[in-house]
Design brief:
alpha/beta, Rossmann fold, Helicase, Ruva Protein, domain 3, seven-stranded mixed β-sheet, two-stranded antiparallel ribbon, 12 helices, 9 strands
Length: 287
């Protein structure tokens, strides 16, 4: 089968099937062989690996994954792409295509069935409008994960790896860094895609921590504190948390705990590290 990383081969396939890009699925297909090679090498894929690919499109990256991995499970939401994938991947016996919404799949069961419950690697060129829900679902679903190597909007990749005190720092930064070590491995300009997106992209590798870098009594509670503190960024942490009805915290209680931690009562959420959020969460849970 022709290498779909070469633009004219992609165009040929799209014309053959009269394929129309669906805005609702955020479809931008990668047409750059050097970027595809970078992704495969960044994901460190070997014949021992099972790879979950989200949004294979017409199978461009799937071909590269099939060559490098032991097996590939590609989950594609757009039923119009399934006949195309059957053709472009017909040479590979180690690829399974599932026509499903990845957010509705039981990924733990999938890893159990296809990989005996061993950690999988995720590789994806993600639709930008749904990047965060997909990443959080992968981390929170309990699926055994080794790493996630994904193409995302450049500013989202930057947000995942920044630290406190920057304008991009927020709930996503903290959540990603609790579960994984983020590392941007390539910046990708719009001309590497068809159709061209209006923003720059980046490939980021998230290597799953064996255990989280902080000790926290209740991670869900810590994340509800984090979300509340960034929902009202301009407010002090004490105001933001006491304004969140689901937390049931008084301003005085938050102020007291912050002062016991040696922090100012007027500090904002964006100034706290993951370690400080963990400590705040643990102290607030101790009556």
């Amino acid at each position: 089968m022709a290498n779909l990383g070469i633009p004219r081969n992609t165009i040929e396939v799209l014309q053959k099937y009269n394929f129309n890009f669906q805005k609702k699925f955020g479809q931008n297909f990668l047409i750059d062989t050097s970027v595809l090679e970078r992704i495969i090498s960044a994901a460190q894929i070997t014949k021992e690996d099972m790879v979950l690919e989200i949004g294979p499109g017409i199978g461009t990256m799937t071909q590269y994954l099939a060559e490098a991995a032991g097996s590939v499970v590609a989950v594609e939401i757009d039923k119009n792409l399934i006949p195309i994938l059957e053709e472009t991947l017909s040479a590979y016996t180690n690829v399974t295509v599932i026509n499903e919404d990845v957010l509705k799949l039981d990924l733990r069961q999938l890893a159990e069935e296809k990989n005996g419950g061993k950690p999988i690697k995720v590789v994806a060129n993600l639709p930008y409008y749904i990047t965060t829900p997909i990443i959080m679902n992968l981390f929170e679903s309990g699926v055994p994960l080794n790493s996630i190597t994904i193409m995302v909007q450049k500013e989202v990749a930057e947000r995942m790896q920044v630290g406190p005190g920057t304008k991009d720092y927020g709930a996503l930064s903290l959540a990603v860094q609790y579960y994984a070590k983020p590392e941007i491995v390539a910046n990708v300009p719009p001309n590497c895609f068809i159709p061209r997106p209006s923003v720059g992209s980046a490939v980021i590798r998230l290597t799953r921590h064996e255990k989280p870098p902080v000790e926290v009594k209740d991670a869900q509670y810590m994340f509800s504190l984090i979300r509340a503190s960034f929902n009202q960024r301009r407010k002090t942490l004490a105001n933001g948390l006491s304004n969140a009805p689901e937390l049931g915290l008084s301003r005085d209680r938050v102020t007291e705990v912050l002062e016991n931690m040696g922090l100012s009562a007027t500090i904002r959420g964006e100034a706290l590290t993951l370690e400080q959020f963990a400590e705040l969460s643990n102290r607030l849970l101790t009556k």
